[in-house]
Amino acid sequence: MSLFEHLKLIEDPRSHINLDHDLVDIIFLVLAAIASGCDGWQAIEEFGQENLSWLRQHRNFDKGIPTRHSIARIIKVIDTEILVMTLFSWANSLRETSSKPLIAIDGKTLRGAVNQHGAKNALHLVSAFDTEQGIVLYQQDTQTKGNEIATVQALLHMLDIKDAVVTFDALHCQRETLQQIIKAKGDYVVQVKGNQPLLRQAIEMQFQPHWYNDGVDILSIEEGDKGHGRKERRTTFQIPAKLPQALAKKWPSAKSLIAVERQRTCKGIATINTDYYLSSLPLDVELAAKAVRQHWHIENLQHWVLDVTFREDCSRIGDRENAKKMALFRRIVLNLLEQHPLKASKPTKIRKAAWNGDFRSEIFFG
Predict the structure, then answer these.
(1) Which of 145, 186, 243, 359 would bridge 248 by S-S if both were Cys, CB 3.0 to 4.6 A apart?
(2) Residues 6 or more apart from 155 whose CB is under 8 A from it?
(3) Mean pLDDT over all residues of the chain?
(4) By three-state DSSP, how is residue 35 classified?
(5) How many whole angstroms separate alpha carbon 106 and alpha carbon 128?
(6) What is the pLDDT of residues 67-84, one digit of tens each?
């Protein structure tokens, strides 16, 4: 199905007296404007006025371009959940799935997007990110960062994670979350920190005998990178999970334990730290290292890009529902830019989309 066929499935909740502008037209206008670098309602209106002839190559726009206030009102009345499902259904239909995708799940606070009750209610979104392809698979909002665990468990119900490896930070080392992944026939790699003190202690103790031999008697892989005056050497170790009986009963799906030792040198100062992970993966240290390393792609390839390229953290859209929808539009556009074959940065692609209607058409229609 094409983009427009998907968008036509969205029910228009407006009364018959407020239908001057077609709903599909307006959603397309907003997506095209964001893909061209617009970051607010006024910029979207101005983009529409300047590019009306291009827009009419793809849609009718019989009544022209509405005012920025009308655009905001029209977007606000759309059911958020239906819009999320519709747009991600379309965007993910364009995605080429790998045999064992690595899906990172993490939260991001939009510090500028607040409602009338103040900054403590800043919008917090949880995203699922295909780290292999750089594609956002789904997003769901949570009232506060403190509700992220329940939000992640709800989000997992919306994803097809069969045969995927799902990665989390330590917040989501929760028995219910991991059981949900196993039930869906997926695997997990989750960091273990102080929020699970007994489990953390047991993992450290299981690795302890191997440290006396510098880890040479267990599976390991070493990687390194450098840049910006920093050097890092990472060594990933993996051993079978042999937890004490009480912990094995609590974490029955755990098959392996992972330790990652990071040695960093920055401006002549060297530091060493070790992080530990629980996993349902069998022994495969290369896959374990890849899963841990690529989890941070959600920070580097999604969160950082959204802030630097789309200035998401500077967004001042005060209405919470519209802030969620604009965040959704940005992630859909991020996917489209990632999937366009041009070998160029996302800011370069956005500039080309702003300047060149043919390139903009390629982004949306191939």
Answers:
(1) 243
(2) 105, 126, 128, 138, 140
(3) 87
(4) helix
(5) 7
(6) 999 999 999 999 988 998
Instruction: Report the C-alpha dihedral over residues 76, 81, 82, 86, rounded to 10 degrees.
Output: 110
Q: Model's pTM, two decimal places?
A: 0.84
Whole-number Å distance between alpha carbons of 366 and 184: 33
Q: Which residues of 74-109 are buried (b: 16+ CB within 10 A; e: fewer)?
A: bbeebebeebbbbbbebbbeebeeeeebbbbbbbbe
pLDDT tens track for 183-241:
999 999 999 999 999 999 999 999 999 988 877 889 999 988 776 667 889 999 999 99
Residue closest to 30 by CA, chosen among 325, 318, 347, 337 = 325
Enter the DSSP assignment of 111.
T
Question: What is the model's pLDDT at position 116?
Answer: 44
Closest alpha carbon to 334 in 354, 366, 304? 304
CA pair distance 259, 241, nearest whole angstrom: 12
> What is the pLDDT at residue 342?
95
Question: How many angstroms separate the Cα of 226 from the Cα of each of 150, 264, 299?
Answer: 37, 9, 18
Q: Give per-residue burial for 324-333: e unless 16+ CB within 10 Å, then b.
A: bbbbbbbbbb
User: For residue 65, is pLDDT > 50?
Assistant: yes
| Token pair for 92 | 């993910």
Residue 120 host element (H or E): none
Alpha carbon of 28 to those of 48, 354, 358, 364: distances in Å?
10, 15, 16, 10
d(CA 335, CA 295): 18
CB 300, CB 263: distance < 8 Å: no
Distances (CA, A) of 40 to 177, 185, 314: 37, 41, 11
- Contact call for residues 326 and 71 (beta carbons, < 8 A): no
CA-wise closest residue to 257 among 235, 241, 273: 241
242-246: average pLDDT: 96
Q: What is residue 146's predicted lDDT score, i.e. its pLDDT?
A: 65
Helix segments in the chain, DSSP class H: 3-7, 23-35, 41-50, 52-55, 68-77, 80-93, 148-156, 175-183, 197-211, 245-250, 285-295, 297, 304-309, 320-339, 346-355, 357-365
